[in-house]
User: Which sequence fits this backbone?
């Protein structure tokens, strides 16, 4: 039996027009799938399969928590996952993905393995930036980062890593922090 055999949904053998499946995705699942975004977590997935004329509608209701590394301090942080996703499956001669929501599976096989689809739905709910809430990052790592942010020996560490993103954006946009050489280059654009 393969690692993901329990995630095969037999569409051809469906006795009724609709079925319900439940899956618990744990650390073993995420380790086996070996995806780049998530390595650990505990997520419950309820799958509703409905047969319609020539297609199968798969509705995934996903709820749980996954663990990712904080981009700032590298400590593990939990990210809640709550999502509902749809996938349409049709039978054909070869496996193909018509678009992001429609998959064709070989009719002679008659099943679809949903392991990777569940992982992708979870990974798509995770924000691109993984950062603890202000004050929650590892204090030792934050102090080391502040030490390396110093630009001069007199500097006491520069901006605090734990400050909000808005303050960082305001600092960058501050006109006084712009190198005066850029102002000379702007004159060239103004003349054109």
Assistant:
């Amino acid at each position: 039996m393969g690692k993901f055999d329990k995630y095969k949904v037999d569409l051809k053998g469906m006795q009724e027009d609709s079925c319900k499946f439940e899956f618990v995705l744990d650390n073993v699942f995420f380790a086996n799938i070996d995806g780049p975004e998530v390595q650990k977590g505990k997520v419950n997935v309820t799958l509703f399969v409905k047969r319609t004329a020539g297609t199968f509608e798969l509705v995934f209701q996903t709820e749980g928590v996954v663990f990712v590394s904080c981009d700032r301090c590298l400590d593990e942080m939990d990210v809640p996952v709550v999502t509902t996703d749809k996938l349409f499956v049709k039978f054909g001669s070869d496996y193909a993905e018509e678009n992001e929501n429609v998959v064709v599976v070989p009719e002679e096989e008659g099943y679809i393995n949903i392991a990777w689809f569940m992982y992708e739905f979870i990974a798509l709910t995770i924000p691109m930036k993984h950062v603890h809430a202000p004050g929650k990052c590892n204090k030792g790592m934050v102090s080391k980062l502040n030490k390396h942010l110093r630009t001069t020996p007199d500097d006491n560490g520069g901006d605090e890593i734990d400050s909000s993103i808005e303050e960082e954006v305001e600092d960058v946009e501050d006109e006084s922090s712009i190198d005066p050489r850029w102002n000379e280059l702007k004159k060239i654009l103004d003349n054109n």
